[in-house]
Amino acid sequence: MAAEGFDATACIIGAGAAGLAAGKALAERGVTFDWFEKGSMVGGLWRIDNDNGDTAAYTTLHLNSSRTRTQYPSYPMPADWPDFPSHELMGQYFQAFADDHDLTRRITFHAEVTAVRPLPEGGWAVTTSATGTRRYEHVLVANGHHGTPNVPTFPGRFDGEVMHAHDYRDPSIFLGRRVVVVGVGNSGMDIACDAAKLAERVCLVTRRGVWVLPKYAFGRPVDTLSTSVMAYVPFGVERRIYEAIVRVTTGTPQSRGLPQPDHALLGAHPTVSAELYDRVGHGDIVMKPAIARLDGDTVRFADGSAEQADLLVLATGYRVSLPFLDPSVLDPAGNVMPLYQRVVAPHQPGLWFIGFIQTVGSGIPLYEYQSQWVGDAITGRCVLPGVEQMQRWIDDDAAAMRRRYVASERHTMQVDYWRYIRAMKEARTRRAHPSLVQRVTAPLAGLL
Length: 448
Known about the structure:
Blueprint: E1 8-13, H1 17-28, E2 33-36, H2 67-70, H3 87-100, E3 113-118, E4 124-128, E5 132-141, E6 148-149, E7 156-158, E8 161-164, E9 178-182, H4 186-196, E10 201-205, E11 212-213, E12 216-217, E13 220-221, H5 235-249, E14 271-272, H6 276-281, E15 286-288, E16 291-296, E17 298-301, E18 306-308, E19 311-314, E20 318-319, E21 351-353, H7 364-378, H8 387-404, H9 417-427, H10 436-441
Parallel strand pairs: 1-2, 1-5, 5-21, 7-16, 8-19, 9-10, 9-19, 10-15, 11-14
Antiparallel strand pairs: 3-4, 4-5, 6-20, 12-13, 16-17, 17-18
C-alpha cells in the first residue's frame, strides 16, 4: 500500500536493462509502483527496432563483455549461447527476463515522462504523456545515459555526409565510400571494422591513443580472468595484471600500428576489440590524430596530413539527458552526476538513479545490485548514511577520479566492477542505530 496522499510508493522511468532490474527488485519486495516507458518494448538500446528513439544497436552488434559477465546475477543466459551474444539474442534475453518475472504487464508503454518535480511536503509529482500527473514517495530514474549523442564541432566546413554512431544501423552505407570515423570507443572500433570490409578507404581518429583489450586471452573471454578477489586488490596491482595480459596476448598499441596512448592502461576507459589490430595490420584501417579542420571534401589532421572523405562518422559518445528534471533538482552538465555511490542524490530524498555508471566490462549486473540496494532502502531493510556523510563520499570520489583518469566527460561515472559489487553488498547491510531504549530493553526481551 502507498502512503496516504500518494498514488503509489514508487515510480520507475524506463524499461531498458536498468529499468528491468529496478522493476524486479521492487516487485519482489511488494512495493507498489507505476512504471513508464516511452517506447513499446523492453530492452532499451539493445532493441534495434525500438521505437523509443534511444536505440543504439546496429546489425553487426555483439557484446564486448562476455555472456557470464553481462547477465543479471539472478538470471543466467542460456549456457548454449555464444560467449558474446548478438543484439538479437540480447533483445530475447531482456524480453524473457521481463516475462519470466511477470514484469511486462506492469509497464505503461508509450508513456513519456515529461516532468518530475519535488513536492513541498515531500515526495514527487511525475507527469507523463499517457497518465497526466501522479504523486510518489520515490522515483527511480532508469532512462539510461546513451540516448543523446554528443556531437562535437570542428573548424571549417564538410561537404560530405555527417552521422553520429547512434544513427548507424547497417554496413551497406559504407560501400565504395571514403570514411573517417572519429572516436575509438567500442562503437567507433566496431564501425571502423565494419566499414573496412566495404569502403574504399577508412581512417580512424584518436586524439590521445587508446589501449585495446582482446576479447579472448588464454582461451577464455578476457573479462572472466577477473574474479571477485579483485574487490580486495589495490588498483595498482589490478593495472599491472591487465598490462601483463595485454603484453602477452596482443602487444602494446604502438607495436601494432596504433599511436602510443598518452595515459597508462586503465587511466582511461579501454576498448575491447577482436578485429581492430588485424584491420590496421592489413592496411584496411589507417589511424589518424585529432581533426584540425574540415575543408570541403578534405579532412585535415593535427599532424599535417589530409584525407579526402565523403562520410564522417562521429563515434563521440553521449551526454546524460534528464529533460524531465529541472536543473535545480539535478543538473548533469558535463556528464557530472553528483550521486552517492552513483545512485543517491543526497539533497533530494526519494530520488534514485539506476544505471548511470560505466565500468570495464558490463554494467548490467551492477544495475541489479543497485536495484536490490534501493529496494532494501525503500522498504526499510537498510538505511542510508547522513546527508553530510554522503556528500563527503561524493567529494572524495570526484577527487579520486581526477587523480586516476584523464580529464574527459567519459570518465565521470566510472566504477570498478568488483569493488562496486562489494560496495553495493555492504550498503545493504547498513542498519539504523537502535535507540537507547532499544539497546537497554533488547537483552531483556527473551526474559519477558
